[in-house]
Specification:
Elements (H helix, E strand, L loop, with lengths): L1 H35 L2 H5 L1 H37 L2 H7 L4 H43 L11 E4 L4 E8 L6 E8 L4 E14 L6 E14 L6 E11 L16 H5 L4 H27 L8 H27 L10 H17 L1 H8 L1
Antiparallel strand pairs: 1-2, 2-3, 3-4, 4-5, 5-6
């Protein structure tokens, strides 16, 4: 059992490091994308961070198996490179011990991936869809900052103020644009305040001392109006999210006969199996010839993963489009992968051991 613990530790240490790096990179990429889309100004920092965490939770379903796979290749590869595997074999430790050690780590990780794929990922998708819809449709002067534009592409509105009083929230030198089907409205005002209609609860922008320009899309005269007081209703577009199969509960998908939903639940249920197959495939991939560098081994492992992952997506697409039925569904690919892994582990280990020695 001490040998198993040692092998597990050699894989677990890089696993935690690789997973942390992947999560950090994905998190930074997501934050940068949302900052570029000005999501912070529409949702606020707290809700944007929540959206980033939801995206991280969704990505974890893929990042955890990837991290475990490459960590097994690196950890076992180091043991081969330092001749530790040769010493273990000389002490009577066979390939079965290595496989058992990898499974002792791989099975709990596969259970975690199953929970992520079947339960956590759909919930995170549902929450992120709601927040994404809010980011696209939310247009509130509460979020505007002095000297910055606040825009909403879906509502066709742009708001700018040169100065905003942090205490009274009064805005000065205000520019407002609203795109319409027949005409667009442009408002320039000296001052403005954001209020809420107590009767209807509708958000309103009270503008003072300015001009309103109504610009027609086609033929017809444009109109210019000077006003001392103007109330501009900011009725929010509907941010409701319809049915999304990625956010649907797995139990609902299991009772569906639609090809797209069959493909979705088969993808979810296949994730823990794919996790185990990948980490077992890492055992023979960690072997290296005497003059083979560590980077060459990682490149080969990356190619194997890329082929397997892309074929998984292709198998899911075939089920979605009805090219392949519910049986064999996506399972044919994992069946072939399982046969290949078992054959290599059982029949190819002797040759691999001889080459490594």
């Amino acid at each position: 059992m001490r040998i198993e613990r040692y092998i597990i530790a050699e894989v677990l240490k890089p696993f935690l490091a690789v997973l942390g790096i992947l999560l950090a990179l994905f998190g930074c990429f997501t934050v940068a994308r949302y900052l570029a889309a000005a999501v912070t100004e529409t949702l606020g920092t707290a809700l944007m961070l929540r959206l980033v965490l939801l995206k991280l939770l969704i990505a974890t379903e893929v990042l955890v198996p990837v991290a475990l796979y490459f960590s097994a290749v690196m950890g076992l590869g180091r043991m081969h490179r330092d001749q530790e595997m040769v010493a273990l074999r000389a002490a009577g430790v066979g390939p079965g011990t290595v496989i058992r050690s990898i499974l002792l780590l791989g099975v709990p990780v596969a259970v975690l991936v199953a929970w992520l794929s079947i339960s956590a990922r759909p919930w995170a998708y549902a929450e992120s869809y709601l927040l994404d819809a809010s980011a696209r449709t939310e247009f509130s002067p509460e979020h505007v900052q002095g000297g910055k534009f606040l825009g909403s592409e879906s509502s066709g509105r742009v708001l700018y103020t040169q100065f905003k009083d942090p205490d009274s929230a009064e805005m000065r030198e205000v520019f407002l644009f609203r795109r319409g089907d027949l005409a667009s409205t442009l408002v320039s005002a000296r001052r403005a305040e954001h209020r809420e209609n107590r009767t209807t609860g509708t958000a309103q922008l009270h503008l003072r001392d300015g001009q309103l320009y109504r610009l027609r899309q086609g033929s017809g005269p444009d109109r210019v109006t000077t006003f001392s007081d103007l109330v501009f209703n900011l009725t929010q577009p509907d941010a409701a999210v319809g049915y999304k199969r990625k956010a649907a509960a797995t139990g609902v998908l299991l009772n569906s006969g639609l090809p797209a939903e069959i493909a979705e639940w088969q993808w979810r249920l296949s994730r823990p199996l794919a996790t185990l197959l990948l980490v077992l495939a890492a055992i023979p991939l960690s072997h290296a010839a005497p003059r083979q560098g560590r980077h060459e081994r990682i490149v080969i492992a990356a190619m194997v993963f890329a082929v397997y992952y892309n074929l998984s997506g292709l198998a899911q697409t075939w089920v979605e489009q009805g090219i392949v039925g519910a049986l064999p569904g996506v399972w044919w690919l994992h069946g072939l992968m399982a046969v290949a892994v078992i054959w290599i582990l059982r029949g190819g280990n002797a040759a691999l051991r001889g080459r490594a020695a």
